[in-house]
Structures are given as C-alpha cells and as structure tokens.
Amino acid sequence: MEHSHHEHQYSEHQEHDKHAGHSVAMFKDRFWLSLILTIPVLVYSEMIQHWLNFTPPAFPGSQYVPFVLSTVIFFYGGMVFIKSAWGELKAKLPGMMTLISLAIITAYTYSVATQFFIKGETFFWELATLVTIMLLGHWLEMASIAKAENALDAISKLLPDKAEKLINGKPMQVLVSELKVGDLVLIRPGASIPVDGVIVDGSSSVDEAAITGESNPVSKTTNDEVVAGTGNQDGSLTVKVTKLGQDTALAGIMRLVAEAQSSKSNVQVLADKAAFYLTVIAIATAIVTFIYWFVTKDANFALERSVTVLIIACPHALGLAIPLVVSISTTLSARNGLLVRKRLALEAARKLDWVLFDKTGTLTKGEHGVADIWATKGYTKEDILHLTASLEQSSEHVVGKGIVQKAEEQHVHLDKVDNFTALPGLGVQGTLHGSEVYTAASYRYIEENKLTVPTKIAKMVKQAAKEGKTEVYLITNKKVIGALGLADIVREQSKQTIKTLKTMGIKTAMITGDSDEVAAYVSKQLGLDQYFAEVRPEDKAAKVKELQKNGQQVAMVGDGINDAPALTQADIGIAIGAGTDVAIKSADIILVKSDPHDVVKVINLSKRTYSKMAQNLVWATGYNVFAIPLAAGVLYSAGIILAPALGAVLMSVSTVVVALNAQLLRRAELAG
Asked: Are residues 578 and 506 in the same domain?
C-alpha cells in the first residue's frame, strides 16, 4: 500500500507515514464494530437520557454498560490511533494521531476514574463517538486512495519470462534468467525481445516506441542492435545476447524512475499541518488550564477542564474535512475519465506553470495515417491507393495497416492478392489482376534494387520527409509508379487543449525523439510555446528539470515507457490511458479516454477540490477558536462554562457542516 501522500514533510529528512501498516479493511471492520457498540453506550449515558428525556430498560449492572462497551471500543478501535501516535512521537512529528490519542486516553482514564473513584461526569459517550467518527474518517480516506503499484514492477512486466535459445541450431524454450551473454536467441514475428543483443541472422521491423518514443518501426537487419522490451514485427530474427538483466537499456530506465521517485519530496497535506498546530495549541492549553485551576480551585475541576479542552480540540470535523472531499473528488474524477493515483499531484495541479506533452501517442494518435498520395502519368491517386492497399491487406506492419484503413475510409475496393510475400524490414510483394507483380516498399528497397524515383515524386517526398512523413513506394516492372506519404496524425483534441491551456495562462511545450523539422512542423500546427526535439529517452527527465528551474511547476503528459523517468521527475505525471503499463504506473494521474483535453479537467478538478478542502479546514478548525478558550474556563467568572457534552455537540455540528459542504463538490463541471 503506498501512502506517500500522507507523509508529513516539515523538513527534507523528517517524514512519517501515519498510515504505515494500515489497511482499508482494518479501518472498515473497526468502524462497524465501534458503531454497533456506540449505540448502547449512547442509550445508557445519563447525559443523553437527560437530553432526550427517556429511560432505557434497567437491569443489574446496567450502569456499567457505557464503561464495558467503551473499554472494548477504546482497546479495539482506539489502539490504531495510539500506535500511530507513538510513531508520530518517535518521528518527533506530533499530528492528528497524537491529538486523537491524547483525547481518547485522557477521556478513558478520566471516565474510569469518575466511574469508580472520584466525583464527576464520565465521558464514555464522547469517547465512543470520537473513536467511531475518527475510524470512519480514516476508512474513507484510505478507501479513496487507490492501491498504488510500483512503476518498476510494470516495466519489468514488459520483458518476457521465457526465450527461445538456439541449441545446436534448434530452438529450446528457456527462462530469460538462464540466458548468458553470447547465447543465440530466436525471436519470432510478433514476439517481444527479451535481451539487448545484435542480429546475426534475419531482418525485420522492430517497434521501439516503448523505449525510444520513435513512432515509426525501425528496419533491422544483420549486425543491427536490438533492445530488451521492444516488439519484433514481421520477420524472424536470430539475436546474439550482449546484455542481460541489470545491464539492459530497460534496466537503466528503471533506475532513472527509481531515482526520480526517491528524490521527489512530498507537499505537506493541509489537514496534517492544521492538526500539528492544533495538537501543540491543545496540549499547551490543557496544561495551562490544569495548572491554573489546580492552583485557584481544586484538582477535580482542573482535571475536568483540561480533559474538556483535549476533547473539544480533537478534530472530529478535521478528521473528515479532507477525506470526504478526497472521496468525492475521486468519484468525480473517475466519472470524468481521470484516475488519480497520487492525490498530492491533484492538489498541486491548480498551480501549474507548464504542461509538457510527449508527441507520439499523446498530441498525435501514434498511428500512421495516409497524408499524401502521389501518382505518375497514367495512374490516378485512387489507383495507387487501390493497388497498395490490396497488397497490404494481410500486412502486420503499422504502415500497411494505415494504408488499408485509408482505403476503407475512401471506400476503395481491394483486389485479391496471389503469391503474397512479406519482405521483412522493407515491405510487401504480390501478384494482382492475375499476372502483374507489384511491390510496396520503403526507400531502402529502391536503393538495394538500384531503382530510380521519378523527379516529380522525389521532390514531393523530400518535402514530406521534412514534415516527418514515412514514404511507401509502389513498384511494378522495376518502375516506381506512385508513392504514399504517411504521418503520425495530430489529434483533433490537441489543438483545442493547447488553446484552452493558453487562456488559463499555462504555457505549453512538446518533447519528442523526432527530428527538429518534424517537431517544428507539429509545434507550429498547434501553436506551442516551446519544443524539444531529438531528445533521447534518458534526457527527457533533464528537459523537465530545465522547465522546473526557478520553481516553475511542470506537468508532463506522456504514454511510453521512455516517458516514465520524465513523468516521475515532473511535479505532476499524467499518463494517456492507452499508453504502456509502466507510464501508467509512474504517473500520478491517468487520462483513461486518452484525450489530451482531459488535462484541463485535471486542473479544474484540482482548483475545485482545493477550495473545498480549504473551506472545510476553516469550518473544522474555526470553532476551536471559540470552543477551546470556553472549555478552558476563560469566562468562568461570568458564569459561562462549556460542558464537555456541549463541546461534543459543537463538534458534531461542525462535522455535519463539513460533510454537507463536501457534497457540493459533486455538482462541479470540469470540462474547460
């Protein structure tokens, strides 16, 4: 269970997690039992009977019902807080747990004393309700924080567990952990690459987007290097292992994520701060009160006053003020397609200066769409699309799929292909219309077969390449008869998002592994304030740091594993939901609908949530300003004194106000 959101952080080195070792189920079980036991405690408490004017059925020993049941509540329900308070004190950071513990220990001890030894009012019903409400608050709080998985587990899941090792030329399935440097591994089409290595035989296209963020699959052939965690596409490869386990590029990225995670300090949660000051004030007031009345009146009165101070200062409402808002904002965010993993990030989103977007798969769709079609004399654009798409029908390659999709969109019919062959890493070939052999391939095929590209097409392709487009040539009888330019399509929502963020006064930037020309082209299309091009994965986090100088708050929006260190380095890491697992695990907030415009919703949710929390804190602590001095007996000479019971009622009213105020958040509209 990760609860770093609740670490007190008054200085770099002092932090204490008040929920260490706690679970949702534990609070839930303790709450329900305490609630059931609290009912008879209330029924058999004289004060409640007096107020409601009723008498419950008496039986031998019925006067001990509050004592017996409150003892169970104290030890079963209250011990959680006492243990946590001990942790706070050991960390020299008294906070809400210390205050709750002080109140319940004092109330219990004092009540037991008045039941058996000294004259005075027992506080059993206040004690029971206090423990029950506190358990409810902490249960709500923990239930609203989803279980967080570590980013590093997700990265390691990218690596297959097994690999096919070639032994005397025959593939044998072995565990990746059993491989050694120098072993030969067979990687079939569609399989994930388990190690860093060099291709000794075969050629294919490899999808390296997860590691490099490069949207185009990379052609690989003999002597080229491959990286663990990337995906083989259309050809079989024999790879010689060069690096394993800790030495692979993937392990390096894991280390970067770990570093960024450990160096990230936590913003102090408001309620903890309020509780910290309240604790100090309450303890000081209780001590002063006791000494004053002990000297001027008597020990019994002094004890009753100081216990009342501690009970009243105990933040029922403060215990619920934040958890209730969190609980509601978690539901609200889920309804709006936002998954919040770290609520500190959500609280901080209202103060953003920069939003930095990864290009591939975030601002763009990460899919190839046909942007241009060029034809030579004697052919129309439709002919070129029809022939190429017919060839690519059974292609596994993203480029091929993009061409077929375009044909479907334009309702271009497709012909049957005979003698279809994939040319791994280059393209596809087949016979159409019975006898004509056609090839759809990359420029490398043209170079290898020493073909010439018509001047008109060559000129167009050159311009398209500057815009980051991938070209596919259509060839028959050793002649290039046409070409298609495919581009990673900019999402429609991206333009709207950038516009809205600008009106909110937030600067936007883009980061990509693509060339400067491609980045400049996309940046201009979208109207971004800044872009970083040709950025290697390991340098992405450094670019985030660059934007963070002078205390600027930066959100990073990304989808690939190569974004994980940057997502963690940023003040807020936001993952596009369709992205890889690891980006999601190292992000603070996930946009389930993969819509970049949801970043605006995150910021709006943050503003609403924060203002509700602040209002609730004012309500929750405000009454203490009046109640604590009254409880201490400041106006005793004027005949005004606050009974512990009345203090508890004040506390309950404050709790109800806080709860109702939190509910108003449900109506918030988040779309900007």
From this structure: yes
